Amino acid sequence: MPPKKKKVPFPRYVRINTLVATADDVHNQLAEKGWILYSYKKESVTYDDYLDLVENLEGSTYMEDYHIPELLVFPPNTPFWNSELYKENAIVLMDKASCLPVFLASIKPGYNIIDGCAAPGNKTSYMAATINNTGSITALDNNPERFKTLNKLVQQRGATCVSTLLEDFTKLNPDQYPDVRCIFLDPTCTGSGVGFHQDKISEQRVRNLASFQSMVLKHALSFPSVKKVIYSTCSVMVEENEEVVKKALDMYQHQFKLADIKKRLPGWKNFGCEDYSFSKKVCKTNPDVDKCQGFFVAKFVRKEKSTCSED
Ligand code: SAM
């Protein structure tokens, strides 16, 4: 039997919360604490080279992520819980995979957004930072305990453009949101990408989740004004990802198509299951390669007659 490959822990990812601090503030404070930024030039370093650098990151050295400008990469298990930056909410501990839906959405200041499954609010607060608190975000969750956390977190992170609703997203009346431009859906899933072992998840649970996920996605696509719908899960199972996307496309392909997200991910090699015609248009992280958790993202964009694209 070949020797088992030692599992290397993921790096520690830190998102700069630009609603509280600038990137310069954060880099300066890190330098004061002895951290050294390892600068590399994207033009001369490929994504593969970058992954090697991440694998060898150690000591007091950190880097910027290859794709997401506001994301910093530290050696695995770097503790930040007691740092001033963390306590002041100038940084948020958030895995790269979890940042991808917001990064890939290309949302802009002034957008009206619905986050349909929002708690605890990591992506909601990242969205607010991306649009610099201009425009609006309606963030829903139907779980009262998680809703409390959502409110707390949104407030602590300075996300003032967010209004929260303790409500079931599927009960939201699309006609009451005539200006919504973008909907994010990050529904409950098996969590098979973040350590829940697939062989311990019952087939019935997967079926129930997949049917709920299909329902929320189809509901989002029914909003008359929506131009983009971002569907994500922290599952790596086809039933919760590619199958859900396929069913939604079967129903809505006259109105929506999948955006080409490769453009925002230079060097990226991991996409959907090749059994699906759209496999190269959806992103599925491979934890062993991409050094982040298992995640899936699909971005639906409304087909427009004009040349103005929402991609
Ligand atoms: N997007 C969140 C973040 O980045 O912090 C994580 C979302 S978590 C994976 C899924 C959330 O969806 C849970 O908080 C759950 O309570 C909520 N949820 C499940 N069904 C829902 C529904 N029908 N309407 C609204 N929220 C729902």
Automatic annotation (TrEMBL):
Signal peptide feature range: none
GO molecular function terms noted in the UniProt entry: RNA binding; RNA methyltransferase activity
Residue ranges constituting the SAM-dependent MTase RsmB/NOP-type domain according to the UniProt record: 2-303
Name this protein carries in UniProt: SAM-dependent MTase RsmB/NOP-type domain-containing protein
Any one Gene Ontology BP term: rRNA base methylation
Alphabetical UniProt keywords: Methyltransferase, RNA-binding, S-adenosyl-L-methionine, Transferase
Active-site residues from the entry: C234 (nucleophile)
Annotated positions binding S-adenosyl-L-methionine: C117, A118, A119, P120, G121, N122, K123, D141, D168, D186
